[in-house]
Inverse folding.
């Protein structure tokens, strides 16, 4: 069957809509390839599309020329929303905001089933309530090693390790070939949540004739292995055990493993753990409901912090990227209702500095230091107060060696990360490496190529 090209007239613009034939297997990133955040990927085969992830970024400009930023930003879904009858489903790999955060805002444009695991489904349902979509979105829960037929795509879920409960990659099988989409992952042999990374399922893929591996590139510039979440627990314990004043830890609300680590640290150091911020309390509540929060780790109400001696305070807050409306910024401005900080208290940044956020973080640190409140970032200490949830080069090498794909497709990273991932794949004897950007059409079958900028892409503001 020949490829079909349809033209739509929309707001006085002509838009070309690509439709894959039965012989075609396509990969089309709309967001997250050439940047970190706002992941949105499409697979095309036999007249249908499957979306993998639908995420956001925070405090980003909508274009390179935009001097201002918008608070919540996602990839423009216009290409697929204008042919939503061909979108057979949306698969969410895990519950981090850059993979699921846009879905509640965009689902009305798609109106198709969502497939994900129990924890991510719980997080998603809470988000849907907030946008008036209670019980309106069909969510199909899946488990490790389970397979689902979604239109012309057969999807199987494979368990990984990451910094959040139930992170999954998946194989996506069609009559034109099979793809392994990694999602976010690392090789963690001592995770605080879930089982240790097991290579068994991935070694088995070598016998499965994987055509392409679409792979996380975030740490592809870093040698070695990413440290374990257990190492981070040890580093935070040593850091906080030495303190005599209040300690505040800024981290991502969705990093449940880090929250569990801090709960254990509080217990070991005689402190009381409190969470300040709705996103944090929601995430821990979802972890409790799905059995991922240990029963022996209590959390107190944030309103009680003001009654405690300073040496018993351990507060976890959002805003580690310098977001102006987040709790860390309010603490720096002495404008947080639940907690006030004094000179010589300590603020720990237990999160990576996402590229592009450096100036906002530095301004926040300067504000704390202006009040003689101490701060500690990961690059300022030899102790492990933050570890990444993404694979470094040796981990990438191992996964390529186990899976043995014919094609490597680096995603989830800036251009330098994608190039570094492709370099690892080449050194790992993967025959072909395809490096592209959002809007490029990766043709995986019947022939292999990248057609540059076949789809117009951009960003839209979900909250200004």
């Amino acid at each position: 069957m020949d490829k079909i090209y349809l033209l739509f007239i929309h707001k006085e613009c002509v838009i070309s809509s690509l439709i894959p034939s039965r012989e075609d297997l396509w990969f089309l990133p709309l967001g997250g390839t050439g940047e970190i955040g706002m992941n949105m990927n499409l697979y095309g085969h036999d007249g249908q599309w499957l979306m993998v992830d639908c995420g956001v970024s925070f405090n980003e400009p909508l274009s390179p020329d935009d001097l201002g930023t918008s608070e919540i930003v996602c990839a423009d879904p216009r290409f697929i929303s204008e042919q939503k009858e061909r979108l057979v489903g949306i698969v969410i790999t895990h519950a981090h905001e850059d993979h699921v955060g846009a879905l509640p805002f965009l689902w009305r444009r798609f109106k198709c089933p969502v497939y994900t695991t129990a924890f991510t489904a719980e997080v998603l349902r809470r988000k849907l309530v907030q946008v008036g979509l209670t019980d309106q979105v069909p969510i199909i829960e899946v488990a490790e090693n389970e397979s689902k037929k979604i239109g012309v795509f057969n999807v199987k879920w494979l368990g990984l390790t990451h910094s959040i409960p139930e992170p999954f990659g998946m194989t996506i099988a069609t009559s034109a070939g099979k793809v392994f989409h990694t999602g976010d992952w690392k090789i963690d042999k001592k995770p605080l949540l879930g089982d240790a990374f097991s290579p068994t399922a991935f070694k088995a893929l070598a016998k499965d004739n994987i055509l392409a591996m679409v792979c996380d590139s975030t740490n592809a510039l870093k040698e070695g292995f990413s440290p374990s979440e257990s190492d981070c627990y040890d580093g935070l314990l040593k850091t906080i055990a030495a303190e005599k004043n209040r300690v505040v830890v800024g981290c991502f609300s969705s990093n449940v493993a880090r929250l569990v680590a801090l709960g254990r640290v509080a217990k070991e150091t005689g402190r009381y753990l409190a969470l300040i911020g709705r996103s944090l309390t929601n995430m821990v509540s979802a972890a409790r409901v799905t059995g991922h929060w240990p029963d022996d780790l209590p959390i107190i109400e944030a309103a009680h912090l003001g009654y405690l001696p300073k040496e018993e305070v351990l507060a976890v807050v959002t805003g580690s990227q310098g977001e102006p409306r987040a709790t860390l910024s309010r603490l720096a401005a002495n404008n947080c209702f639940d907690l006030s900080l004094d000179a010589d208290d300590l603020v720990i940044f237990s999160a990576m500095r996402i590229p592009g956020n450096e100036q906002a973080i530095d301004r926040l640190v300067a504000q704390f230091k202006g009040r003689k409140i101490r701060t500690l970032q990961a690059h300022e200490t030899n102790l492990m107060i933050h570890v990444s949830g993404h694979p470094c080069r040796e981990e990438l090498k191992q996964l390529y060696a186990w899976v043995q794909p014919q094609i490597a497709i680096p995603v989830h990273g800036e251009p330098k990360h994608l190039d570094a991932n492709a370099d690892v794949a080449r050194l790992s004897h993967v025959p072909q490496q395809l490096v592209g950007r959002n809007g490029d059409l990766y043709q995986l079958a019947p022939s292999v190529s990248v057609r540059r900028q076949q789809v117009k892409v951009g960003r839209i503001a979900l909250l200004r």
Q: What stands out?
A: The two ends are 45 Å apart (CA to CA). The longest helix spans residues 256-269.
